[in-house]
Fold this protein.
Amino acid sequence: MTSIKVKVAGTALMTAVLLTGSQWGNVSTAQAASNALPVKATLSQMYDIGPDRLYFDPATGYLQIDGQNVLKPFVKNGVSYASSSEIAQAAVKANKQEPLNFVLIHGSWSDASFWDKTVVELKRNGHAAYAPEYAGHGKQYDPKVAHEAIVESIVNDIKAKKLTHIVLVGHSFGGSIIQKVAEQIPDRIDRLVFFDAFVPLDGQSVADQLPPELQGAFGQLIEASGNNTIPMPYPLFRDGFVNLASDSLAKQIYQSAKPEPATPLLQKLDLKKFYNLHIPKSYLYLTSDMVAPQGEKYSFHPAQSSHLGQFRLITGDGDHMSTAYSKPAYLEKKLYEAARK
């Protein structure tokens, strides 16, 4: 579908320029007739490759996308031009993904099916992708589960499948899980990706990352549950977790949101070993995520991301959960940007 849209857009663009003889950027009629297009505008409008990914190296004459040379444009009046076919080839080269091994860890009020559509997109782009269910969740639902059991179940899965050179992705509460998994099997991990994830400091819990009023509300829900879980009220789920979703999609996602076992969220975690590891780290932040309040103190970025020290920051548009259901191809692209070597 995407390739059809690009082809149609390209045809329409060239027809408009050739028939009207108008200028796009500083391109003249003669240049248009020779199939020359402004490179940056074309990459942005037709191939969704924004200026932040581009760099023109005056020493070599190459235009780079994500640091790799893709074409040698000609420059006139400060604007780079190339033929439509050259630009198309550059876009294909830039968007070609090097195969990686993804292990995807879901967050609270969810299960491994959260990743189903993303796994399909990752595999479509040549990657290996695995989303394990962990202790206390999904078919293994257990309100009494502890954080250690969750971590152990994932470590055992990774070892049983003999997975190595993995990109370990943690979403939301999954951030704390991949911290502890990394402590146990650092030699199997090439990069950690925290996706709108909590990143507790040593001695902290996931709950410690939340504003006091939200901690208090969760405490009341735990007490009322009778089994040490946190049932998520739909209004809070709708506004915080799936605020960009349609009403029908929001309700569909909410149906699988079982009451979350409280213990793993409340446990103080010994993370000394994690903060002495030297595994490369990335943080993927979707700017419409409303689970954590915006601002410096409690937000996913920069409050949680800053706990990582040096890291690669990738941003995009999306909310906490529904983007994985409604725009899996977009999420796959952002995960690859975060994970690439």
Q: What stands out?
A: The chain has 14 helices and 14 strands. The first helix runs from residue 2 to 20. The radius of gyration is 23 Å.
